[in-house]
Amino acid sequence: MYSFRIQLFAAVVIAVLGGIISYYCFPYSRFLSALIGLTAIFISYGILYFFVLRPLRLIQRVIDAQKDKNSVHRVNLYTSDELQTMSDSFNTMLDAFRSDIVQLEKLERVRSEFLGNVSHELRTPLFTTQGLIETLLHGAVDDKKVNRYFLQKALSNIERLNLLLEELIDISRIESGEMKLRLRFFDIVSLLVDTVNAEQVLAEQQNVILTLNGDTGNPIEVFGDKERLRQVLVNLIDNAIKYSEPKGTIMVKFTEQNDSVKLSVEDTGIGIPPQHLPRIFERFYRVDKNRSRDVGGSGLGLAIVKHIIEAHNSTINVESVVGIGTKFTFFVKKSGVG
Ligand code: ADP
């Protein structure tokens, strides 16, 4: 690498040499003396201009161009000196800065989209409840044919609000890192038996058959947060019930595999069209908004499930065929290692 100092030094030496030569060699010719002196100054300026001023101006221009946040300018110097090193570092800094801006803009978009979704989700049950109460107050309370029905509807809207708020609190605690997992060894088989038994009531109400498939005779110790994994199973089974038709079947299955246990919740429900599959774990993403709301969905269940599974260093997978059914699969480790 040529040193920046060498270039400055060369410019000074040429100017001084030019002065000396013109002074000593041509003391009697003012014209030659002036010509050599001027040439020396010109060459020195040329060196300074090409190797110092021009690159600095180029850098300044790129800095000025940053006022436009869509600018794609970079500093392109091919001088192989300290300025080149500086411009390379500057470009690296610029790339990092631009990717930070893109990231911040994305976060801002996600945040406002999230706020929009939250207010929309809260508004619907709130307005419905308000409407029902107003109707009751305007006389429907004395009408025995409808008063209980309206009250029942108001209650179910308030229950929906409650569920939404609980899930919102969960998701914000998970995403802010506030929710810590309580990892310990526990028997996954008894958790599965308990959860499936508890969900039988809902399954019967919807007239679907819910079964647990696997060797329930022997306990299997896994390492994880028991309550959070219960929440995962409940969400998946609730969904399977919600998105099944009467007489459908839901199978919760578990099998031991080396260092982990493979768990799946499979239904014979309505299924999910392939174009929606990559997005169903996003917050508030629903395939059919009306059906989801009708069955009391908040649109946050699968986002919470995914967060919890990922916090266990695992992944969740979904396979689905419209009209045939859906299967969610994930693994829980038997030990905390790996
Ligand atoms: P929701 O509260 O709306 O059920 P989720 O986050 O739990 O929200 O699920 C997101 C969407 O994925 C649902 O709205 C539904 O369209 C689809 N979905 C989830 N589970 C199933 C399933 N077992 N069968 C069919 N569709 C499902």
| Range of strand content | 5-15%
The largest sheet is: 5 strands, mixed
Quickly name the level 1 CATH class of the largest domain.
Alpha Beta
| CATH topology category name of the largest domain | Heat Shock Protein 90
Number of helices: 8
Written as H for each helix and E for each strand, in order along the chain, the element string is: HHHHEHEEHEEHHEE
By CATH, the superfamily of the largest domain comes out as Histidine kinase-like ATPase, C-terminal domain
Please name the CATH architecture of the largest domain.
2-Layer Sandwich
Uncertain runs are: none
Helix amount, in percent? 55-70%
Name the bound molecules. adenosine-5'-diphosphate
Assign an overall shape.
elongated
- Strand order, biggest sheet? 2-4-5-7-6
* Broad structural category: alpha+beta
Mean pLDDT over all positions = 88
Radius of gyration using CA atoms only = 36 Å
**Terminal CA distance:** 47 Å
Q: Report the count of strand segments.
A: 7
Instruction: Give the domain tally.
Output: 3
Task: Describe the overall structure.
- The protein has 338 residues and is of the alpha+beta class.
- It has 3 domains: 4-98, no CATH class; 109-176, Signal transduction histidine kinase, dimerisation/phosphotransfer (DHp) domain (Helix Hairpins, Orthogonal Bundle), CATH 1.10.287; 184-333, 2-Layer Sandwich (Heat Shock Protein 90).
- It has helices at 4-24, 30-65, 82-137, 147-175, 188-205, 226-242, 289-294, 301-311; strands spanning 184-187, 209-213, 221-224, 249-257, 260-267, 316-321, 325-333.
- The strands form 2 sheets. The chain has a 5-stranded mixed beta sheet with strand order 2-4-5-7-6. A two-stranded antiparallel sheet has the order 1-3.
- A hairpin with a 3-residue loop joins strand 6 and strand 7.
- The mean pLDDT is 88.
- The structure holds adenosine-5'-diphosphate.
- Residues 239-240, 243, 267, 269-272, 280, 285-288, 292, 297-303, 326 line the site of adenosine-5'-diphosphate.
- The site of adenosine-5'-diphosphate (ADP) has 22 residues, from helix 6 and helix 8.
